[in-house]
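So, is this right?
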Amino acid sequence: MKIDFDAEWRAVIDFIKANDDFLVTSHFSPDGDAVCSVLAMGEILERFDKKRTLAIEGGVPLKYGFLPGSPTVINPENIEISRRYSNLVVLDVGSFKRIGRIKDMISDNPRIINIDHHASENHFGEISIIDSAASSVCEMLYRFIEITDIELTPQLAAVLYTGIMTDTGRFRFNNTTPKVFGICAELVKAGAVPEKISHEVYYNLPKDYMEALAKTLSSLTFHREGVVAVMEYLDSKEIEDSEGIINYAISIRDVRVAVFIRISEDGRLKVSLRSQNSFDVKQIAESFGGGGHQQAAGFRYRGKLDDLKNALLKTIDEHLSEK
């Protein structure tokens, strides 16, 4: 049955008009779509003349600091939480637990708008709009903006373009549809500047990133006759945009699955997965309690590194054998 998303968006409009003082959030360790959808929704709520607080566990990564509104996003790890919110907008979150410490900012019985593009059974919220055919939540919000007839300013266009660009892997993942290119053309017409956005996100790297990259590449190992590549970065020093490092492994000829393991802020092992040729790493991540997309997924693991690698490689091998 075809879903009438326009009717669902009108329900969101009614909810926003009837309420005020919103908390807008996304998942911890935010990627581009998470950050940009939060910023875009903040701008949308401002146009409705609504009070809003933007918050993401971990805050906004440095490479997205150029985006309009990014300094207004609160990191709950850096503040004393003094109040709780009853009206929530949750974006790009396949499972509610992925909001992390934001839960400490929420009242006992919140009213939630849930907007996401992950195919998941973990639907939540008073209003839940899930469009697994969309490349990103920013793509979904573009349609919402069309319906509300909100002016698409250059600032808002830049935010939406960045979210779509990053969640399509620079327009190379299989979620890069003709519709995506059509929307991005309209965003460029509205004032988004692809050259500037691409430079800020991908070509403005700090020196410690390159040092971490060198160390990570030296750990590279291959498995299953070169089909699986594994890299590790186990220093306690956190690096900016560690997610981007895994792209070096998945770009190697004949590699179908790439794994990047590092230490997360809470001491658990953080695992990123990437794939080529329609291999579904989302299923693998979900088997370890994580999630994501078919070609980009991840999870966190509490335990020994060797145990993780053995279990993960066994699971990947089982899935490869099915293909």
Remarks:
- The domain at 207-322 is CATH 3.10.310.30 (Diaminopimelate Epimerase; Chain A, domain 1).
- The two ends are 30 Å apart (CA to CA).
- The chain has two domains: 5-149, 207-322.
- The chain has a mean pLDDT of 92.
